[in-house]
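TICKET: design request
STATUS: open
ATTACHED STRUCTURE:
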């Protein structure tokens, strides 16, 4: 293939967030020490990284398999787990390797304390997040599964606007959507028309590793003619950031694996940017860069 003018940049801010990187390093250390390690749920929403760690010996199990496991070492991933998981571990002689992200662990603690303190005043813990998401399951577990999960305006009918409301967020949600829902809750409390409006306290608990990613990615996408966004298909952070990338630069391709990237690339791009989700490994973006470089003889 003829050599052509082309520059490929990997987004220096893309790749694993601190919490996921930490969990992977803990898993690798355990495996290197020769232990058999089970991971409760996928350690990261990226099939390639999971395959790499499974080659090293990591065994991924679901919650049903976990219930039947005894006398084993189990890793808790960055998303965290509800108290029930710890209870089962005690009963089944399971040694937990707790790789819950410290930011998530802190949020769990905050919600647990809030829940205990607001019981008397019949307050409601509300969590802006995706129902069924692992982190959200861990968060509502701190409230005996009584917290109200809201994902969109439709869910706001679940809240009683005559009682105190304490709003938190899953760490990986969109800040704008959070602000919109917060304002709508405030409006509904006013509309409830109580002489003494119900107290409302909101805590923006979106992780800065996520909220800063969007503006950083937008700036990077604007600097390139063609963007290649790399992410696992079941990563919610990946879907969110891909949308932002595509809206900023409509010339954006989505790929999960190097094999999915079709060559030659569309058009005649000169500056190609490669970026990814907080669950995309750096080595995967490098493989994609190398594939393009080989094809165009760079
Ligand atoms: S996104 Fe933030 S809170 Fe969530 S695992 Fe990563 S570092 Fe932790």
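STATUS: resolved
RESOLUTION: sequence designed for all positions
ATTACHED SEQUENCE:
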């Amino acid at each position: 293939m003829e050599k052509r003018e082309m520059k490929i940049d990997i987004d220096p801010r893309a790749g694993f967030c601190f919490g996921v990187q930490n969990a992977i390093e803990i898993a690798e250390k355990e495996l290197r020490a020769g232990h058999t390690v089970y991971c409760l749920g996928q350690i990261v929403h990226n099939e390639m990284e999971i395959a790499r760690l499974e080659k090293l010996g990591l065994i991924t199990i679901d919650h049903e398999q976990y219930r039947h496991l005894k006398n084993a070492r189990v890793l808790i991933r960055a998303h965290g787990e509800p108290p029930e998981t710890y209870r089962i571990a005690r009963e089944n002689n399971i040694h937990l390797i707790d790789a819950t992200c410290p930011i998530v662990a802190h949020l769990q603690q905050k919600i647990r304390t809030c829940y205990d303190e607001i019981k008397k005043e019949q307050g409601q813990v509300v969590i802006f997040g995706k129902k069924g998401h692992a982190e959200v399951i861990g968060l509502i577990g701190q409230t005996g599964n009584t917290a109200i999960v809201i994902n969109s305006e439709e869910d706001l009918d679940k809240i009683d606007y005559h009682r105190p409301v304490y709003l938190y967020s899953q760490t990986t949600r969109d800040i704008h959507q959070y602000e919109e829902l917060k304002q709508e809750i405030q409006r509904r409390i006013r509309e409830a028309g109580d002489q003494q409006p119900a107290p409302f306290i909101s805590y923006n608990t979106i992780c800065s590793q996520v909220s800063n990613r969007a503006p950083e990615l937008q700036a990077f996408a604007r600097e390139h003619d063609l963007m290649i966004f790399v992410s696992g298909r079941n990563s919610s952070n990946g879907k969110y950031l891909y949308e932002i990338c595509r809206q900023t630069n409509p010339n954006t391709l989505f790929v999960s694996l190097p094999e999915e990237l079709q060559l030659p690339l569309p058009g005649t791009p000169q500056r190609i940017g490669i970026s990814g989700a907080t669950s995309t490994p750096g080595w995967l973006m490098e493989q994609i860069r190398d594939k393009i470089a080989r094809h165009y003889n760079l």
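CLOSING REMARK: The first helix runs from residue 18 to 32. The pocket of iron/sulfur cluster is lined by residues 17-20, 78, 101, 103-104, 171-172, 207, 209-210, 278 (CB under 6 Å).
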